[in-house]
Amino acid sequence: MSQSNALRREVDAAPAPQAQSFDINPLPGPVGAEIIGLDLSRELTAADFSRVHQAHLDHHLLVFRDQRITPRQHIDFSRRFGPLMIHVLHQFHLAGHPEILTVSNIVEDGKPIGLGDAGKYWHSDISYKELPSLGSLLHAQELPSEGGDTLFANMHLAYDTLPAALRNAVVGKRAVHSYLAQYGQLQKEGNWRPNLSAQQIAQVREVVHPVVRTHPENGRRALFVSEGFTTHIVGMPEDESRALLAELFAHSVRAEHIYRHRWQPHDLVFWDNRSLIHLAGGTPDHLRRKLYRTTIEGDVPF
Ligand code: OGA
Ligand code: MN
């Protein structure tokens, strides 16, 4: 058989994806919907994918329940939304899968197997890059019997409900985002963070983004600052900048903007980093927690 015939056979043999019947149930709060009955280990049809995509835009966060997927399948599904980002902390890449960052408080042979203090401050993933993240997908591997929740705040709502004085104060403003904003502080607070090499530091030079961004797909405005990565507002005296950011941070995380995710086994949570900021609620030290994260690249905020 010629090589091209052999290839054609393989293509013909790949089964066409089958439609799946699944429910999209909005969660009661200001963010999120639960997806029941969809199996992400199977390839999605174009129509099923487009339903998922629209639900993600409508709800900003999707909880796919009971996903028995491999790291490969997690990566393949994530890639359908855009190119994946490789996290600067290569120490915590999953072996053989640099697209996956291990988020875990587990220590093996005296060494952390993952980033143990991920999300200790409110943040939008990788907002410290020129091209911040579109969204992240976090897949539960091992969950503690208590604690370990993740909180999400709706930054469209935060913008829409800004008091007039604050709204006027942020018009046209830009802010600096830096991976190093809290790094030294986090190193002092725990033993999770390696010293960064010169090469790693070169990968995370600070960037400037608008304080209010327009979501490229839903057209809505959102606040785009966070205590995790935003250091100051460009062109403002240091004390004024600090005071304004403190007010914006406090307003962003008002209780009515927040969804608290209580993890269930095999949950895959896919959130929109252009619409939400998030925070790790914290896990008691003696309980093990491990999740795998992929991060999709987005576009330049405007
Ligand atoms: C993350 C993150 C929070 C958590 O993985 O990006 O912020 O609760 N995680 O693990
Ligand atoms: Mn995060």
Automatic annotation (TrEMBL):
Keywords, ordered alphabetically: Dioxygenase, Iron, Metal-binding, Oxidoreductase
GO molecular function (one): taurine dioxygenase activity
Annotated region (Disordered), positions in chain: 1-24
Top-level EC class as recorded in UniProt: oxidoreductase
The keyword Metal-binding appears for this protein: yes
Domain named TauD/TfdA-like: residues: 24-295
Pfam family, one: TauD
EC number: 1.14.11.17
TM region(s), chain numbering: none
Database matches in PANTHER family: ALPHA-KETOGLUTARATE-DEPENDENT SULFONATE DIOXYGENASE (PTHR30468)
Family: Belongs to the TfdA dioxygenase family.
Protein name from the UniProt record: Alpha-ketoglutarate-dependent taurine dioxygenase
Gene name tied to this protein: tauD
